[in-house]
Backbone:
């Protein structure tokens, strides 16, 4: 597709809104429910949040397995959303667009799953889909049946730190044969795939197999400043731009540095390589990450968005950008043969 046809398609598929609002592509409400105050989200005009569910590999097996752990968290998020009539779980781009078009502030919640241990067969994907899940991070700390995870050590001596050594060890594993079939099934179903935590090879394999699919990296930092495979390379940022996808800026000192100045340097690299309109928030607030000075939790959204806007990065319109990506993902689905 020529650049002009891509631009025309983006324009025709982009939703029309009266204002602009933000999105957090990765907010762990089940882990920090008490810290998520609607007044903080409203102050930043945060109207969409993707809420990842995470089943720990060992603990979940001792408490009924992955599937039950994920379903318990879905129930938890549903109860949280039901406490305020302004909050709703959205399952389609149209439902998300209705939230953004509301004259009064509202919040749309997109259910996601981080780590594919509980979502590695078509039947498991179907069960999660039926419960409202619309996004899946296909790898986490270790390789999955989908494919390779980013190489690196997270504990006790992490190898992924801001300003670390420039040498980067890459996992040579990409999408597995099963992963190719699962990706085909997920794309045909309309499930958005998050490539954060995936190996570079896995990400490039997916991009090559589904070139019309907008690429998503929901909570990232720039590898140029934090050299490890867990962060995103300039080459992958350019793939985000090519595909018309999005990259979420992680508000985590572990990856983006301890202060706002460091965070903005990561944002500047992402904007330069992927395009300013491709950079949104993907906080990764989970109660475990290092805190950036002045951004301890969702109460810091407004200050980060203000800094991004001053740098020419329109993350204050990230929610609208995401709805456009969601619609194009569904358009790609219509051209994908379901296995």
Residues:
């Amino acid at each position: 597709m020529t650049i002009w046809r891509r631009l025309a398609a983006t324009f025709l598929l982009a939703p029309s809104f009266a204002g602009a609002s933000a999105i957090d592509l990765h907010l762990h409400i089940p882990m920090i429910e008490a810290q998520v105050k609607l007044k903080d989200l409203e102050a930043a005009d945060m109207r969409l949040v993707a809420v990842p569910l995470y089943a720990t590999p060992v603990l979940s097996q001792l408490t009924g397995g992955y599937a039950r752990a994920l379903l318990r968290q879905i129930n938890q998020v549903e109860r949280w959303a039901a406490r305020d009539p302004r909050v709703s779980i959205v399952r389609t781009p149209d439902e998300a667009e209705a939230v953004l078009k509301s004259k009064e502030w509202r919040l749309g919640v997109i259910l996601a799953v981080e780590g594919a241990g509980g979502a590695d067969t078509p039947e498991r994907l179907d069960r999660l889909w039926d419960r409202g899940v619309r996004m899946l991070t296909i790898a986490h700390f270790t390789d999955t049946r989908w494919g390779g995870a980013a190489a690196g050590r997270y504990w006790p001596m992490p190898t992924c730190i801001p300003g670390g050594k420039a040498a980067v060890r890459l996992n040579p594993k990409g999408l597995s044969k099963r992963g190719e079939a699962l990706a085909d099934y997920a794309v045909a179903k309309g499930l958005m795939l998050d490539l954060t935590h995936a190996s570079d090879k896995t990400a490039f394999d997916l991009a090559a197999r589904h070139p019309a699919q907008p690429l998503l990296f929901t909570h990232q930092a720039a590898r140029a400043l934090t050299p490890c495979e867990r962060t995103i390379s300039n080459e992958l940022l350019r793939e985000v731009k090519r595909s018309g996808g999005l990259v979420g800026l992680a508000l985590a000192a572990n990856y983006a540095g301890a202060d706002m100045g460091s965070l903005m340097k990561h944002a500047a690299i992402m904007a330069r390589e992927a395009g300013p309109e491709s950079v949104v928030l993907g906080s990764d607030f989970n109660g475990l990450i290092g805190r950036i000075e002045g951004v301890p939790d969702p109460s810091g959204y407004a200050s980060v968005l203000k800094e991004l806007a001053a740098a020419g990065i329109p993350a204050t319109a990230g929610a609208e950008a995401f709805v456009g990506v969601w619609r194009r993902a569904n358009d790609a689905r219509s051209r994908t043969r379901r296995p």
Observations:
- The beta strands are 22-24, 46-53, 87-89, 107-114, 133-137, 192-194, 216-220, 246-249, 279-281.
- Residues 69 and 245 are 30 Å apart (CA to CA).
- The chain has 14 helices and nine strands.
- Residues 1-18 have pLDDT under 50 and may be disordered.
